[in-house]
Amino acid sequence: MEIKEIVKERYGQAALRVTTGGSSCFGAAAPVDCCDPITAELYDANQTAELPPDAVRASLGCGNPTALAELKPGETVLDLGSGGGIDVLLSGRRVGPAGKAYGLDMTDEMLALARENQRKAGVANVEFLKGEIENIPLADGSVDVIVSNCVINLSGDKDKVLREAFRVLKPGGRFAVSDVVVRGEVPAEIRRSVELWIGCVAGALEESEYRSKLAAAGFERIGIEPTRIYTVEDARQFLAGQGLDVDRIAPQVEGKFISAFIRAVKPLQPLQRECCAPSCCG
Fold first, then answer.
1. Are the CB atoms for 115 and 84 separated by under 8 Å?
2. What dihedral angle (degrees, nearest 10) is formed by the CA atoms of 63, 65, 67, 70?
3. Which of left, alpha, beta for 180 (phi over 0: left; psi -120 to 50: alpha)?
4. Are 197 and 203 in contact (CB under 8 A)?
5. Separation CA 251–CA 227 (nearest Å)
6. Could you report how far apart the first and last alpha carbons of the chain are, in Å?
7. What is the pLDDT of residue 256?
8. In this structure, is the dihedral angle defined by the CA atoms of residues 204, 201, 152 and 10, taken in order, positive or negative?
9. Which residues, 6 or more positions from 111, have their beta carbon under 8 angstroms from its beta carbon?
10. Burial class (CB in 10 A: 0-12, 13-18, 19+), 124
11. pLDDT digits (tens, 9 = 90+) for 151-181
């Protein structure tokens, strides 16, 4: 089964668990706090108080991009991989009635949950779209800001995701996402683990590679700001139950996985490409 289908299946199951009063965390016997440390304590009480409980329970992110993206009234925002809708609903409130917040997700169960959360929250300037982050169903130059919360690392074609993000942004538009980033070499056992890929770890890009891919897509003013650095004890939670030698692997991942806020900007003018045709040289 392709990674995309596995992600779709697992996140669909997570949405169904939330709607039946359970946890969004993966695994039939997963405890309520199983998603720690990545998803714990990302939103403050003032933010979550405004939202339906199911929107909060369905959050599987690694950061709070809406708190860092400096959204302005009247802007149009797109959340890639919007899940239960928490970041879309928060974005809709931040951009106000004159703005618009889109959520894009490929999972029917998550879309249904997000739309129900929108109804409960009473946020009118929000729309949830079905689609894949590698093929965004919006027009060129139609979005002011792109946010995402621990989703891009789940894609098997991150270059295409970043090219699509660049395409739909307006000139001067902002890329402002939370994601897991790797610093240094990672044990091969983790890269081979599909379960850890689903858990926002094994699909993560190395920091310099993330910068290179953003630049290749056309972005400038690229910045990666760590928001959490995971310790050996955190890694034990990642690795437990995966059939891996935790004591051997945990010290090798000390400080190498970080949650980060990743910023970039689409240039106001198209990048000038060197032209070798005679017509370019007069």
1. no
2. 160
3. beta
4. yes
5. 21
6. 54
7. 86
8. positive
9. 105, 128, 130
10. exposed
11. 998 898 999 999 999 999 999 999 999 998 9
